[in-house]
Amino acid sequence: MRLAIFDFDGTIYRKETFTLLMHHLKTTYPKRYRRFFVAILPVYIGYKLKIITEKNMKAKLMESYMKSLKDLNESELDAYFTAVAHGMKDDFNQSVVERLQEHKQAGDYTMILSGAFTPLLHAVDQQLKLECDAILGTEIPRPDHPFIHIHAEQKPVLLYHHLETVDVNWDSSSAYGDSIADLSVLEMVGHPIAVCPDKTLNQIAEKQNWEIIL
């Protein structure tokens, strides 16, 4: 099997998901937003003071965000994230979306692998009619499933777990990402593509002669 793996934030979606998520919570549920803001303020201050790492800060923000929505049922959550996805419609990277569609038409196993919330990724998949073969992201926490924010080094773990029974041709597979956090996945495939890369990833991509999409 030949894979085409796509990151989401900064790759399919040009911006950061969490900024839009915060705005949507503020306008939809202002009281919940205030509680969320109070909860995450010490974490954000700790990050600015370099007491808390960026990775841990983002994980705490994601966990606190879902706690603010914990009493919504499944259909309400789906409607909520569908509305968030609709707010992204003008900020998708069309070049990357077209690449994904080309991989799909070529028979590749297309995947979105991201730290974004899974129901949001599914909503985007439906909105753009991507019909991805797999969507792997940060799952909504359940009583029997602890919260795990998918980030950087956790991406290959999740990927290998999903593909453990599949014979993958890694040399002919492709991966798309925008930041150094995607490096571990990009290095797994024969065709890594840097999308509007951050400074560190851009340096690596140029040194390794990887394709760069701006």
CATH topology category name of the largest domain:
Rossmann fold
Helical residues, percent: 40-55%
Structural class, from secondary structure content?
alpha/beta
Total helices: the number is: 9
- Which architecture name of the largest domain does CATH use? 3-Layer(aba) Sandwich
Distance between the termini: 28 Å
Number of DSSP strand runs: 6
How large, in whole angstroms, is the Cα Rg?
A: 17 Å
> For the residues shown, what is the average pLDDT?
93
CATH class of the largest domain, named: Alpha Beta
What is the string of helix and strand elements? Answer: EHHHHHEHEHEHEHE
- Morphology: globular
Widest sheet, order of strands: 3-2-1-4-5-6
CATH superfamily of the largest domain: HAD superfamily/HAD-like
Strand content: 5-15%
- How many distinct domains? 2
Low-confidence stretches: none
Largest sheet entry: 6 strands, parallel
Gist?
About 50% of the residues lie in helices and about 15% in strands. It contains nine helices and six strands.
Question: Can you give a write-up of this model?
Answer:
This protein is of the alpha/beta class and 214 residues long. The chain has two domains: 3-14 and 91-213, Rossmann fold (3-Layer(aba) Sandwich); 17-86, no CATH class. It is 49% helix and 14% strand. The protein has a six-stranded parallel beta sheet with strand order 3-2-1-4-5-6, sandwiched between helices. The mean pLDDT is 93.
